Amino acid sequence: MDTSLIALSAGLAVGIPALATGYAQARIGSAGMGALAEKPELAGRVILLVAIPETLVILGFAVAAMIILLLGGG
Amino acid sequence: MLVPMAKVRILGHRSALDAALAHLYALGTVQLVDVADQAPDLGLPPLGLDGPRLRELERLRLLRARVDGLLDLLPPAAAASPRGAPAATGAPAPPPPFDGAAVAEELERLAPRVEAHTLALDALAAEAETLPRQVEALKKLLPLAGDLPDLEGSEVAALLVERRQARVLPALREALEARVGRAVEVVSAPLDADTVGALLVFPKARAGEVYPLLGREQVSRVRLPARFEGLSFRRAVAEMERRLEALPVLQATEREALEDLLRPRARWVAIRAACDARIAQLEAARRFGGTSSTFVAVGWVPAAAVPALRRGLVERHPVDVEVVPPTPGEEAPVLLRNRPAVRPFQRLVELLSSPRDGGLDPSAWMAAFMPLFFGMMLGDVAYGLLLLAVAVAVGRRGRGSPLARDVAGVLRPCALWAIAWGVLYGELLGDLGHRLGWLHAVWFNREEALEPLLLLSVAVGGAHVVLGLLLGAWTAGRRRRWRELGKRLALLVALGGAAALLVGAAAELPAGLGPAAGAALVVGLVTLVVLEGALGVLLGPLELLGALGHVLSYLRIAAIGLASVYLARVANELLFAGPLWAGLVVAALLHALNLVLGAFSPTIQSLRLHYVEFFREFYEDGGIPFRPFGRAGAVDAAGPGDDAPWTPPSSPSAPASR
After folding, report:
1. What confidence tens digit (pLDDT) does each residue in B358-379 have?
2. A32 vs chain B: nearest CA distance in angstroms?
3. pLDDT for residue B80 is more than 50
4. CA-CA 20 to 30 A from B174: which of A9, B151, B295, B529?
5. pLDDT value for B459
6. What is the largest CA-CA distance in chain B?
7. Rounded CA gap, B153 and B205, in Å?
8. How much is the pTM?
9. Residue of B635, B617, B7 whose CA lies nearest to B298
């Protein structure tokens, strides 16, 4: 039971931020494509802006890792 | 690294203007600025173009447009370089001065013949478009013509009528007989499910009455091209078929005649290049300032190129070149130059934006760290070897293409680091190497040692962010931005203290280090608060938290790496799950997918770590890229085959164009 709850918690800790990241990147990506259609030289900045929300899922991964390590015994 | 730039002022007698323009164009190392806008201290009006030069500019633009039209008529140049041979290095030799008037005169002489050939080609193309449809329609009617004799003085009209309207044919016959008499014959038969074909035979002399009647009754007929009218039906169809067979040959002959008239293509390319050069020079003259007897040009040039600039101008013409200091607040354009190994990463830096004048070129740092992060994320010997093979192939096949060269230049070190970290992690197609006993981890196995992997990622991130802060401090000190320098150093101290306390929370610190770490954190934070100004109480801690967040962002190295490991593990599990042949197919597909993801995802994430977490600490973007005036930008690249030297036209010498 404990193992199941730990696994579920770790999954939620990554999954929910991943949903948020996906939503944010969808909005940013479509706006970025529109900007690139007008100004292709913005490619670098658009890549940057699309990649920024990934911090959410990385921090979620960090929490999941902490849950597994600290509660799951590594 | 940023190439040192020098601002130059070129002052000369007006008579030397054209020579100066030609020399600047040939050099291609000076970025000109508008004297009136950018050098107001001189107080000079814009030079402007006098009447003769304006007329020359108009003539050259017209000439260029006409030469473009001629080049459109010629086939594109075939590639001269054999496959795999290295492309020619260096810019082409500058086009010699040319006689625009003589070229214009030659074009006038050629124009009627070119137009005749072009019109003939257009007519043949139109005929090739319509003749097949006409022949196809008439051939369907040929069986009807089988019983019709070829009567002298008779004409045949081919009709196509929809089957549901076929009753119009008897009425048509009656109407024709009423008008023409009984010397008319209508033969009809169904051609297909929807169409009835009919042949109408009538005296040629009565054609003027028959065709208007057909028009009034809105009966559609298959019109013959003018050249076949008057022939009997069968003969017309036969001639049309012969004509259809002959059309490709006629078109080729006409095209060959046109190309013979205009050959060699290289000559017109060189003329166009010469036009471009002179047009660019005349348009550049508008940026100059001047008086009735002098001209002044201001521009930026790489400092090492100033002697070459002087050699061509000062030694031969009444021109002086002087290096002047930039005006306060003026920024030099930026030109990046790096060693060949770093140059591909320079393109990635420029993808974001150019660094500002006086800033730091991060290309070398990116060349050092991006492949390292890539390798840490991918970390697989087999994937690394495959990517290395791809890099070598791209580099070979794309020789001559700067983009292919740069892609190979980035992929090669990334693949090598992936192989190195694959050995450290003991990964060969994930855990396949371990399962088969071929490879074991030299350092630690990522699947089993999550904690060391996370700590390694955070440690690498911390080192990278600290490096960024040190570079930021160095840049701030060089620019004498003391507040900025203080903030960077304070953040470093606070970050060091915070890191020591976090380590101490996990493991026991040596005696005395705990309080020292706490003191460092407090001192750094307080300094940040003070240096941030009025809102320092909010901004200082935010700055520290932001830096800690940047360090934690490097956990993506572990996250991306583990995703790759577990996808490979799934592939290997499926390899042994069922029949071997099925397992091989599924495993191969999954490993291929993992490889593609492993090529793109670590690249994007490494770039993001550099662009956001690393560059944020020191990189000043928004630099003005160096765009020199000259032949490198003005010469039209017509293709690798068009490198024949320009030769003057064979016509008698004409007066000079000015």
Report:
1. 888 999 999 999 999 999 999 9
2. 14
3. no
4. B151
5. 93
6. 130
7. 8
8. 0.72
9. B7
Q: Which of B574, B497, B78, B549 is nearest to A52 (CA)?
A: B549
Pairing of strands B319-324, B195-203: unpaired
Interface contacts (A, B; CB < 8 Å): 54
Per residue in B40-77, pLDDT tens?
A: 777 777 777 888 888 989 999 999 998 888 888 777 76
A17 C-beta neighbours (distance < 10 Å), count: 21
In this predicted structure, the answer to whether residue B86 has a pLDDT above a threshold of 50 is no
Residue with the bigger pLDDT between B459 and B110: it is B459
Chain B interface test: which of A39, A54, A67 (most B C-beta within 10 Å): A54
Tokens read off for B71: 């080049």
Distance of alpha carbon B40 from alpha carbon B330, whole angstroms: 12
Whole-angstrom Cα distance, residue B281 to residue B283?
5
* Residue carrying the six token digits 């010397």: B183
Residue pair B594/B564 in contact (Cβ under 8 Å)? The answer is yes
Which phi and psi angles does B602 have, rounded to 5°?
A: -60, -35
Separation CA B411–CA B399 (nearest Å): 15
Do B257 and B212 meet the contact criterion of CB atoms below 8 Å apart? no
CB-CB neighbors (< 8 A) of A45 in chain B: 352-353
The reply to whether residue B607 touches residue A43, judged by beta carbons under 8 angstroms, is no
Residue B293 phi, psi dihedral angles, 5° rounding: -120, -10
β-pair partners for B355: B621
Closest-CA residue of chain A to B615: A48
Of residues B536, B535, B462, the one with CA closest to residue B499? B462
Query: d(Cα B175, Cα B210) in Å, to the nearest integer?
Result: 10
Query: Could you give the strand order of the β-sheet that contains B154-162, starting from the edge strand earlier in sequence?
Result: B185-190, B195-203, B154-162, B221-222
CA distance B341 to B354: 19
State how far the alpha carbon of B432 is from the alpha carbons of A58, B71, B380, B639, in Å: 27, 59, 11, 49
Comparing CB atoms, the residue among A44, A57, A68 nearest residue B353 is: A44
C-alpha B571/C-alpha B150 separation (Å) is 80
Which 3-state string (H, E, C) describes B219-256?
A: CCEECCCHHHCCCCHHHHHHHHHHHHHHHHHHHHHHHH
Q: CB of A41 within 8 A of CB of A9?
A: no
Residue B648 pLDDT exceeds 60: no
Question: Which of A45, A65, A68 is closest, CB to CB, to B352?
Answer: A45
Tell me the chain B residues in contact with residue A48 when contact means C-beta distances shorter than 8 Å: 352, 608, 611-612
Kindly tell me if the per-residue pLDDT of A12 is higher than 90.
yes
Helical pair A43-51 and A2-38, crossing angle rounded to 10 deg = 160
The dihedral sign for the CA sequence B622, B340, B561, B499 = negative
